[in-house]
């Protein structure tokens, strides 16, 4: 899809990856509908983009039914006014690195609500007002294809987003709407705590800049690529995990002691 003059609704716009995606899309000529929890942060991002008057901000908490309904009404209003949305990017997300046994039920529900339920509900709403041809692009994670200790809830949510994207794309075949999926590996953003960044560095787990992820997102939109996994060897591990999961299990087992060490540091409050 040619992105020039397209209207893009981007959730999680105030996060590291969200800001980078916004900058890439604005440079490509798109007009942005920036969604996030903080009006102040959204305004700062809008002001930093070229031709800021082309973009609008919409503060919303995607885990709140009332805010989703407000977004739905605005999507319908834009559609009826002839200024409908062409692309929806479900980027909002969060995670907590910890043993499942030490997580509260509330934190588990919140993580699943934002990472899995919110993109599903946003996609459902968008089917009512998204322009055709149109695109829904869901941001996943390498952990959607590789179960990793300390991220049980996040892995389950992102795996769900991957299969949801695949299923909905097939369900909408021939409708004029594509559903795409981009799965970054570890990314240098505030989503990863200092403890996680230190662990990744010690274990040799590579990470990408938000700009790297944003460029892949824009390329996927232009080429309408069904799914993209970012990073080597992570995308190789995703394939191996599907066919020979014990190979990946053995590789992660060699990291187990250090993973547990860093989780214990988090729970002890020493880092």
TrEMBL record:
Keyword Oxidoreductase in annotation: yes
Enzyme type, top EC level: oxidoreductase
CDD domains reported for this sequence: SDR_c
Gene Ontology CC entries for this record: membrane
Keyword Hydrolase listed: no
Pfam family, one: adh_short
Keywords: Oxidoreductase
Listed EC numbers: 1.1.1.100
InterPro entries: NAD(P)-bd_dom_sf, SDR_fam
GO terms assigned for molecular function: 3-oxoacyl-[acyl-carrier-protein] reductase (NADPH) activity
Family (UniProt): Belongs to the short-chain dehydrogenases/reductases (SDR) family.
Name of this chain's protein: 3-oxoacyl-[acyl-carrier-protein] reductase FabG
Species for this entry: Vibrio mangrovi
